[in-house]
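input
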Amino acid sequence: MANTFLCGRYEFDLERPLVMGIVNVTPDSFSDGGQHDSADAAIAHARQLVQEGAHILDIGGESTRPGAAPVSEQDELARVLPLIEALRDCGVPLSIDTFKPGVMRAVLDAGADMINDIYGFRQPGAIEAVAGSRCGLCVMHMKGDPRTMQERPEYSDLLGEIGLFLGARAQKLRSAWVDPRRIVLDPGFGFGKTPEQNYQLARRLGSLRVSSYPLLVGMSRKSMIGHATGRDVHNRLPGSIAAALACVARGAAIVRVHDVAATVDALKVWQAVEQGGIPTDVRNPVRETGK
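output
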């Protein structure tokens, strides 16, 4: 795994796992839809996540849950741009969860540090929108699209197909002269995968080697947690933490979560166990480059 992740104005040391806090500015996200759909509420929530230890904020203006309806570019920008303006100096990178090239260009102009694209930069113009910047790039695997992805997804080789897709998309970015240290890969838990496929993927995550690119995983509160625990979406914290720790133990560099404080604490204990003691020389993994 690469030791450094370049993310806009910031540079991360990946010796220890990072926590990406989720900030949804949407009325219909599967877990917290409507809770932070006003700019003021979302900004307050984002600042709270930073206080809880989030290393990155991932801001979304369009729900990508199964069956989600599309949102116009104008509506998406109206939701996310006020947050970028308010949070630009919050001390951590701002990632924008979008697949629209027009939104990518606008948010990068506004000061965003990272683009998290569920389509893996496959939309026409997406690579061109990000190639010339310094932003971090998350390439995700998804089979189908949000409206159809859970309609009986089938694989002949689950890890092989995911790995080939992610490797090919990373190479497309490299061909556009993107620094490989800007790229992280997300195998896409819950995006075109059955619960069984999700758990097969998690169990074998350590075998998903795509060059030296770091892995980002997002399992927080998803239905796969509910299938294992029988809990509804509002009672999946213990299961989500277990999933995050299992993936970190198998090599994940970044975990994308709703519950930042609990995940940060769980990772501290996991690290203490791994190291056989409480570390006394923990360095801040993020350095602001100012560029």
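quick obs: Residues 158-175 form the longest helix (18 residues).
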